[in-house]
Amino acid sequence: MNVNIVKGTHDIYDDDARAFEYIEMVLKAVAEMYSFQQIRTPILEYTELFTRSVGESSDIVRKEMYTFLDKGDRSVTLRPELTAGVMRSIVTNKLYATKDLPIKSYYVGPAFRYERPQAGRYRQFNQFGIEAVGVTSPYQDLECIMLGYDALKLLGFKNINLKINSLGDQESRNKYREALKEYFSKQIDNMCADCKERFNINPLRILDCKVPADQEIAKNAPKMRDYLTPEAKKRFETITNTLEEYEIPYEIDDSLVRGLDYYSHIIFEFHYTTENGLNVGAVGAGGHYDNLLSEIGGPALSGVGLALGIERLYAVMKDDNLLKEEKLETDVYVMPIGEDSIKDAFGVAQILRANAYKVEICLENKSFKQLFKRAENINAKLAVIIGENEIKNNEVVLKDLHTQKQVTIPLKNLLGTLDMMFDDKEEEHDHCSCAEDIHHE
Ligand code: ATP
Ligand code: MG
User: Fold this and answer.
1) What is the pTM of this model?
2) Does residue 169's CB lie within 6 angstroms of at least one atom of ligand 1?
3) DSSP letter, residue 155
4) Cα(24)–Cα(320) distance, rounded to whole angstroms?
5) Given 319, 347, 380, which residue is the final one in a domain?
6) 3-state DSSP call for residue 58?
7) Atom of ligand 1 nearest to the CA of 120
8) CA-to-CA distance for 240 and 84, rounded, in angstroms?
9) For residue range 342-353, what is the model confidence (pLDDT) as tens digits?
């Protein structure tokens, strides 16, 4: 009987793995352009970290966490997001005291949420994100949004839909919460069970409800923007004005509250619809926070973060054909002809690898037809063919798989010839120069 893959998880291999790596490479490069440094935190954390940071009223903590008791009866959780771990690390390692502020970290890695699997929604998925901690300026929030915007542009996204909203400061939110309670108190009996619970713990969460009938009711609810204190309003305006100045299109979405409890002031989401109309939900999201670090025992430092879902980026990039370059490339395929040639061919492959060529070798006795099929599958540029005659004469056959031209050369010249061909290639950029050049040697 087959052992199945865990529901909602997925394997990533070959071209897809290369595509994931490419996406992560671009994201890391952008983070480094903005001078963020990498942080790697454990996948496993004490459950309390998430109940205190992500928040008791969030869907994540209420329904989506992989929580279990370890053998020492401690409640641990597979991280549902990475921000909490970064904050815990700042506290654990006292980075706020030992490092200059701001602390600017980026991360990439898996997160786990027990959700109903569907397009763009997995139970184990990968997030890339950044956190800047220890700056209060709204320009830090802007930097974070712009980093996300730049990253999406560099990945090839054209019409990025940036949604923003402000949750204001504590005072703004307290007033707003009262107004929402008042509004929903008349309707709550007709709303879903989740909303009834949200009404008691955090009525803001009701605005996040995905049930259409509830969304209809929420449409006419009071708007956060009418409850912002003058300071909170000014902060929000600095951000919107600057986005306009830099011609970054945005849309103010009054129903945007985000799924995590720790935000205040600006929150944002990046949405994207492919040319075929594929929309997998938000590709990334983030916001400003004031109490997150102090909530878990650190100092009262503000911060701002952004997280992008790699699976969702991948899905839309694939649909929009933005990943076509991510193919396997092999420099040389070494083809032994006959069982007896394998040993010598093996030695040749090892020498080429030691000289930094990407080499695959066939280690079975295969027909020419099979060998060339494989060469095609692995996108090999050149074949080095080694048979009984070649071994006897200390030679190899070098074949350019693009032009199909081939030459026989002394084995001792192989490396020099390849170096010359690949040097040319770098100058000419495209593929390596053809075997004709070898004749002129
Ligand atoms: P959603 O509203 O779609 O559930 P979220 O608000 O829960 O998203 P965040 O916590 O902001 O998501 O996570 C940041 C990003 O991680 C999302 O924008 C998305 O790209 C990705 N993401 C979140 N949950 C999943 C999931 N279950 N599978 C794949 N990617 C996900
Ligand atoms: Mg979610």
Assistant:
1) 0.90
2) no
3) T
4) 18
5) 319
6) coil
7) 29
8) 28
9) 999 999 999 999
